[in-house]
Design brief:
The chain is mainly beta. It has one helix and 44 strands.
């Protein structure tokens, strides 16, 4: 495992509470979304909010719980092995939604005890039987002060360990409104975690979201992640070099020279005063041996890297432009305008093809609605596009894009089926199609894929539930399925690659890189 550290499981910390009685530490944090400007399909049904319970001595993670909402407050029960967690947020248009969770620290069971969703701003044990709650108003309808208000109540139970799902109804939560100050505890949480790590003789820092990972023939591991444009790990487990970036790299494409790698940095708009600003795009070629930035391209717009071929090929993502978007091609003579490919949509046009022998892109047939009727298209050596087959093999279904890999004269790719009510059961897929469009097999799933790769015999598919599935490359049958864990604690793969040596490299949402056998 590369990039490990204390409290890695919770991502960016928001709140930390130390319980001296049980010698436990509760920490809440956010791993972030599993989408970026070049790919958005994998974020469906995902939540990055985490609650971790750690041993104060040794900092081992005992429990890790996913929350659908940001955590607002944490409180250990004075006697029972029980943690009360207040969660919630404003939905952006009307309601304050959330939960009151009770985490049973001995069994790991999690109970959501409110009958109806309410944002719980604060939790505080007044005694073994009394829990004080501060809840946000139900909504801000005709109440502009709602965001600074709350309702304080004390809920009593003789045995909080026996409280069941939805056991606290609305009548128990009725209370007069009062002013509430919402506090940001993230700075205090960072101070607490750094102090606990130092007491254990370790250093703490935040690592998140390994977006791309690759292995080299000599056993090194390359990665792109939040805050790091690219980094290299030696087989010994030591970090060889890292190139920092304000937001971090999102793709890795090995250059044709075999000694360097191309990577691109995320660039999101940020508010500065009254204006929104975005840093200049960054596409760089980095030497694998030294980490030296050998070359930087200036495409003028944020782009995705298109793998395959000898040239560097970029696809612009700036859909605000009025003129049709073109591929950008860079060779020894400088930039060359490529063919028109239409505007890019992060849900529809994501199609990063691993092990590509030629460039592949998704192109819509309707210039005004480029997300409709997309075709899998390849770019010829002469710079012209050649449509291969419709992206959706089911005429009645609209398919979103996703990760892909080339196997011989075929493509294996993953994605999701559009539905007006969101991703449906069986709405995620992995399919193998020959380059003439015929479907060799398909595999349906309930959660969208985050990454996939193949060794030619097996296709490995990771999804955002934390599952890793191995499919037979010939017929698509499931060879095995496992839930990813690190020392018994669940994690989720955001990127993966089969290394030249045959093992799997897995980049996780919590900033770690796993080196695993190709069979569980």
């Amino acid at each position: 495992m590369f990039g490990d550290g204390p409290f890695a499981e919770i991502g960016e910390p928001a709140l930390a509470v130390v319980d001296e009685r049980s010698r436990a530490v509760a920490v809440s944090g956010d791993l972030g979304h599993v989408q970026w400007s070049g790919s958005g399909t994998a974020d469906s049904r995902w939540t990055g909010y985490r609650i971790g319970v750690y041993e104060q001595d040794g900092l081992r993670c005992r429990r890790l719980v996913r929350s659908w909402y940001p955590v607002r407050s944490l409180a250990f029960h004075p006697v029972l092995p029980l943690l009360a967690v207040g969660t919630g947020r404003y939905d952006g248009g009307y309601s304050f939604e959330g939960e009151l969770l009770l985490i049973h620290l001995d069994s790991g069971d999690v109970v959501s005890v409110l009958q109806y969703p309410r944002e719980v701003i604060r939790v505080e044990w007044r005694s073994e039987t009394a829990l004080r709650l501060v809840l946000a108003p139900c909504d801000d309808w005709e109440n502009p002060q709602a965001h600074q208000q709350g309702h304080a109540v004390v809920v009593a139970r003789s045995d909080w360990g026996a409280v069941g799902q939805g056991a606290i109804g609305a009548e128990e939560l009725a209370a007069p409104v009062e002013s509430v100050v919402r506090s940001d505890h993230s700075a205090e949480a960072r101070r607490i975690l750094a102090g606990l790590a130092a007491s254990a003789g370790r250093q703490w820092s935040v690592r998140r979201r390994v977006w791309a990972v690759e292995g080299t023939k000599d056993g090194r591991v390359l990665a792109a992640l939040d805050g790091i444009l690219a980094e290299s790990w030696l087989p010994s487990g030591d970090l060889q070099w890292a190139v920092e970036d304000e937001e971090g790299g999102r793709q890795l494409v090995l250059a044709s020279d075999g000694t360097s790698v191309w990577t691109n940095a995320e660039r999101r708009s940020r508010r500065k005063g009254r204006r929104w600003e975005r840093s200049a795009p960054r596409v760089a070629r980095v030497a694998v041996d030294t980490g030296q930035v050998l070359e930087t391209l200036s495409p003028g717009a944020f782009t995705v890297l298109v793998a395959g071929g000898q040239r560097v090929i970029l696809r612009p993502l700036d859909g605000r432009r009025k003129h049709p978007e073109r591929l950008m091609m860079f060779d020894l003579d400088g930039p060359v305008n490529g063919p028109e490919v239409g505007r890019f949509d992060l849900f529809n046009h994501s199609f990063a093809v691993h092990r590509a022998s030629r460039p592949y892109v998704l192109v819509g047939t309707d210039p005004d609605k480029p997300h409709r009727e997309k075709w899998v298209t390849t770019l010829g050596a002469d710079g012209t596009l050649r449509p291969l087959f419709p992206h959706s093999w089911v005429p009645a279904e609209h398919h979103f894009g996703g990760p892909a890999v080339e196997i011989g004269q075929s493509l294996v790719y993953a994605g999701a089926v559009h539905h007006s009510q969101g991703l449906q059961p069986g709405g995620a897929y992995t399919v193998r199609r020959s380059l003439n469009g015929s479907v060799q097999w398909q595999h349906r799933a309930d959660r969208p894929a985050t990454a996939l790769d193949t060794d030619g015999d097996t296709v490995y598919v990771a999804d955002n539930s934390g599952a890793l599935t191995a499919l037979d490359a010939e017929d698509g049958s499931v060879r095995w399925n496992t839930e990813l864990e690190i020392e018994g604690v669940p994690t989720t793969a955001l990127s993966l690659a089969v290394a030249p040596q045959g093992h799997l490299l897995i980049g996780t949402v919590d900033g770690r890189i796993l080196e695993c056998p190709s069979r569980p």
